[in-house]
């Protein structure tokens, strides 16, 4: 089959490799119909995620049709069209019972912090991902979700990660009626966080980035104010000036490890790297938010040391919330929002790329060329 293949930092290509097979009675094999490239894939692509092995197939955001099921799978049958939460989870461990599906204790033999994730290095279990024609899906009775018959596939594929992650970012902000919410990062995740903030009662929403085309998009899509951080001398001072001197009630980090905007953070967090990523956006969150406010982090950082101003967070009495999203938990509500027409997530899709051209897709999305917001890979079997 055709599949994306990692060769080393900044080098990916489409190759032919063996089709996956059922390895366990709870497995299913899915024929992929859509797969996205995510900001999280860029951390892999840039060589920043430990134990990313040559030969791996990335892709944790995909939809597909069930081709085959293992002997003990009961909830799915051949021909079902499903969307796949990016988390691989068992549904029954201590953490899954608390709906912390991203922290499942049974699906990642290589680490205890995070559960399994499709196509996201051996740090999250070493599973091959969905930027391919076929994928092996473990715990098939638990994760895959049947796509409602009236739903556009492009909307469905955004339910596998970007939309629920943005939604959870807003949820973890514990937004109260009328709150001012600042979202750092106007990628797909930040765009959906800004939109979700309104659904949770925000009174004012401000998005921050340095890519004007993304700021224009989020302004229109989420009807929010915007700031280009290149035009601001001191982010904390600027945001306090915009909010009666106190600072925003909630700040969301939807940027993570590869933040721009501070040369020293960039050098120590990305170039060398001595830190687990450039925590620039996180600094801005902690230093801007008002005393007693909440910082919600969905931007991904590596597993070790980061120079974060924890003293400021303590002295300001902040609440810090963070996690990989637990996608499945949000699906019923988000499907309802889409069906009611309150959300049209597929509007963020700017590029449809044949799976064969996956290398171009990574280059385009990584370098933010051609006003790219969200690229979707289309396998040959679903092209007319
Ligand atoms: N927690 C989760 O479950 C989860 C899920 C998906 C993605 N993520 C993470 O969310 C982050 C965003 O993902 P995405 O797909 O939107 O990526 P993206 O690369 O499309 O967007 C990131 C945006 O941040 C902007 N940016 C850079 N430095 C900034 C700064 N200092 N302040 C404000 N904006 C800045 C960039 O210009 C870019 O537009 C990534 O770190 C990704 O790994 C987390
Ligand atoms: Zn993703
Ligand atoms: Zn579990």
Description:
The protein has 384 residues and is α/β, with parallel strands linked by helices. The longest helix is centred in the last third of the chain and has 13 residues, at 327-339. Helix 4 packs across helix 5 and helix 4 (162-172) crosses helix 11 (327-339). Strands 3, 4, 5, 8, 9, 16 and 17 form a seven-stranded mixed sheet that branches. A six-stranded parallel sheet has the order 12-11-10-13-14-15, sandwiched between helices. Helix content is 27%, strand content 21%. The structure holds nicotinamide-adenine-dinucleotide (NAD) and zinc ion (2 copies). The site of one zinc ion (ZN) has 6 residues, from loops.
List its salient traits.
384 residues; 2 domains; Quinone Oxidoreductase, Chain A, domain 1; 7-stranded mixed sheet; 21% strand; binds zinc ion; alpha/beta; 6-stranded parallel sheet; binds nicotinamide-adenine-dinucleotide; Rossmann fold; 12 helices
Give the oligomeric state.
single chain
* Alpha-carbon distance between the two ends: 19 Å
The run of helices and strands is EEEHEEEHEEEHHEHEHEHEHHEHEHEHE
Bound molecules: nicotinamide-adenine-dinucleotide, zinc ion
Q: Structural class per helix/strand content?
A: alpha/beta
Biggest sheet record: 7 strands, mixed
Mean pLDDT: 97
The CATH class of the largest domain, by name, is Alpha Beta
Number of domains: 2
Helix content: 25-40%
Given the structure, what is the number of helices?
A: 12
Instruction: Give the CATH H-level superfamily of the largest domain.
Output: Medium-chain alcohol dehydrogenases, catalytic domain
Corresponding CATH architecture of the largest domain: Alpha-Beta Complex
């Amino acid at each position: 089959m055709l599949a994306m293949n990692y060769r080393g930092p900044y080098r990916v290509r489409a190759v032919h490799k063996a089709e996956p097979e059922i390895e366990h009675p709870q497995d299913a094999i899915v024929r992929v119909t859509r797969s996205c490239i995510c900001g999280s894939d860029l951390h892999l692509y840039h060589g920043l995620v430990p134990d990313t092995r040559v030969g791996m197939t990335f892709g944790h955001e995909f939809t597909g049709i069930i081709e085959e099921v293992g002997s003990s799978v009961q909830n799915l049958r051949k021909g079902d069209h499903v969307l796949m939460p990016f988390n691989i989870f068992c549904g029954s461990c201590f953490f899954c019972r608390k709906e912390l599906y991203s922290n499942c204790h049974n699906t990642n033999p290589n680490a205890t912090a995070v559960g399994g994730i499709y196509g996201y290095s051996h740090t999250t279990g070493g599973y091959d991902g969905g930027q391919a024609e076929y994928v092996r899906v473990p715990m098939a009775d638990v994760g895959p979700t049947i796509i409602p018959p009236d739903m556009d596939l492009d909307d469905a594929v955004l339910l596998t990660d970007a939309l629920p992650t943005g939604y959870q970012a807003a949820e973890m902000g514990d937004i109260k009626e009328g709150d001012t919410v600042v979202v750092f990062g106007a990628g797909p995740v930040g765009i959906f966080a800004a939109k979700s903030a309104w659904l949770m009662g925000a009174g004012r929403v401000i998005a921050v980035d340095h890519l004007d085309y993304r700021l224009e998009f989020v302004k229109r899509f989420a009807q929010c104010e915007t700031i280009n951080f290149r035009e601001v001398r001191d982010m904390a001072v600027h945001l306090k000036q915009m909010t009666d001197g106190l600072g925003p009630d909630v700040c969301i980090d939807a940027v993570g490890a590869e933040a721009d905007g501070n040369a020293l953070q960039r050098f120590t967090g990305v170039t060398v790297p001595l830190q687990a990523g450039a925590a620039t956006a996180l600094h801005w969150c902690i230093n801007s938010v008002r005393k007693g406010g909440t910082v919600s982090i969905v931007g991904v950082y590596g597993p070790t040391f980061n120079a974060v101003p924890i003293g400021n967070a303590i002295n300001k009495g902040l609440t810090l919330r963070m996690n990989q999203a637990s996608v499945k938990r949000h699906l019923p509500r988000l499907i309802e929002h889409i069906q009611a027409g309150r959300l049209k997530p597929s509007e963020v899709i700017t590029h449809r790329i044949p799976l064969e051209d996956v290398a171009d897709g990574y280059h385009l999305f990584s370098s933010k060329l051609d006003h790219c917001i969200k690229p979707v890979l289309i396998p040959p079997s679903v092209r007319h």
